[in-house]
């Protein structure tokens, strides 16, 4: 007996698009995404491409009208519903190019809902290339199977972030002067959360005092070793996902 071909095809390329997807929707593709599909993946008419728009889940689309620099994709059926994104924000001071790109990539892979750049006094970088960061988020989502892009917040100063901090959202932050062991703190403080990572030089004393003054702030320790900012961001996110996020298994049955 002939085996039924896998659906969607496992070799189908995956692409983020801005067009809102739905059955029968035609999606025009040009620019770099078209170059990727036509010149790199060598798609041809009737091939299948997997699409996601960050809102509508994942859709299988059929290729048509392939030209030198553009093509058209027709949505056929939804292959995955919109994902349930853990309610976790990663707030981090801007750091050097390459390292902040790594944070964006891994934040997306780990399931972060929002990436929020925060300007602090000791930050050695005060500007970010948001187009490049967005591109890293898109590429990571395409590779790891996400159907929702993390929200990328505009740069805010630390005092503005703290002033508008939402009630009911825990604000974990790595405090070099001491705090509860991270695992213990995550077990005690469940629910919507964010982790605040400082710059390479750490928070200054006035900033630590201001953070601690926020009712939802939870100072934590990341262990005995000095971590780079990007290492701390990735480790803290992974720890939260293990205890409170989508790395947890289903609840035990009675």
| CATH class type of the largest domain | Alpha Beta
Tell me, rounded to a whole number, the average pLDDT: 91
- What would you report as the Rg, rounded to the nearest angstrom? 21 Å
Number of helices: 7
Spatial shape:
elongated
Helicity, as a percent range: 25-40%
- Unreliable stretches, pLDDT < 50, 5 or more residues? none
Strand content: 15-25%
Counting helices, strands and paired strands, the structural category is alpha/beta
- Name the CATH architecture of the largest domain: 3-Layer(aba) Sandwich
Q: In the CATH hierarchy, what is the superfamily of the largest domain? A: SPOUT methyltransferase, trefoil knot domain
Through-space gap between termini: 42 Å
Number of domains: 2
Element-level helix/strand string: EEHEEEEHEHEEHEEHEHEH
Main sheet, how many strands, which sense, barrel?
8 strands, parallel
Quote the CATH topology of the largest domain. Alpha/beta knot
Q: Using DSSP, what is the number of strands?
A: 13
Please provide a written account of the structure.
- The protein has 254 residues and is an alpha/beta fold.
- It folds into two domains: 14-80, Hypothetical PUA domain-like, domain 1 (Ribosomal Protein L25, Chain P, Beta Barrel), CATH 2.40.240; 88-243, 3-Layer(aba) Sandwich (Alpha/beta knot), CATH 3.40.1280.
- Helix content is 29%, strand content 25%.
- The protein has seven helices and 13 strands.
- The chain has helices spanning 31-40, 99-110, 130-144, 158-163, 182-188, 205-212, 229-243; strands spanning 14-16, 26-30, 48-52, 58-64, 70-80, 88-92, 114-119, 151-152, 156-157, 170-174, 180-181, 193-197, 217-221.
- The strands form two sheets. Strands 6, 7, 8, 9, 10, 11, 12 and 13 form an eight-stranded parallel sheet that branches. A five-stranded mixed sheet has the order 1-3-4-5-2.
- Strand 3 (48-52) and strand 4 (58-64) form a beta hairpin.
- Helix 2 packs parallel to helix 3 (130-144).
- The protein is elongated, with a radius of gyration of 21 Å.
- The protein starts with 13 loop residues before the first strand and ends in an 11-residue tail after the last helix.
- The model has no long low-confidence stretch (mean pLDDT 91).
């Amino acid at each position: 007996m002939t085996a039924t071909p896998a659906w969607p095809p496992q070799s189908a390329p995956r692409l983020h698009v801005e067009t809102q997807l739905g059955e029968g929707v035609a999606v025009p593709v040009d620019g770099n995404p078209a170059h990727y599909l036509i010149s790199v993946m060598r798609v041809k008419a009737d091939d299948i491409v997997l699409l996601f728009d960050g809102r509508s889940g994942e859709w299988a689309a059929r290729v048509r009208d392939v030209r030198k620099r553009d093509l058209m994709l027709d949505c056929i059926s939804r292959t995955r519903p919109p994902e349930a994104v853990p309610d976790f924000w990663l707030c981090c001071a801007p750091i050097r190019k390459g390292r902040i790109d790594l944070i964006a990539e891994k934040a997306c892979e780990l399931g972060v809902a929002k990436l929020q750049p925060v300007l602090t006094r000791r930050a050695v970088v005060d500007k970010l290339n948001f187009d490049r960061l967005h591109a890293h988020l898109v590429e990571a989502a395409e590779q790891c199977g996400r159907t929702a892009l993390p929200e990328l917040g505009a740069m805010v100063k630390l005092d503005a972030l703290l002033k508008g901090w939402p009630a009911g959202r825990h604000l974990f932050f790595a405090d070099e002067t001491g705090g509860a062991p991270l695992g213990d703190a995550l077990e005690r403080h469940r629910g919507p959360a964010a982790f605040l990572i400082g710059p390479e030089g750490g928070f200054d004393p006035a900033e630590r005092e201001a953070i601690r003054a926020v009712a939802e702030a939870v100072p934590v320790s990341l262990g005995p070793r000095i971590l780079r900012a990007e290492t701390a961001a990735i480790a803290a996110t992974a720890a939260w996902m293990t205890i409170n996020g989508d790395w947890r298994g289903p609840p035990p049955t009675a």
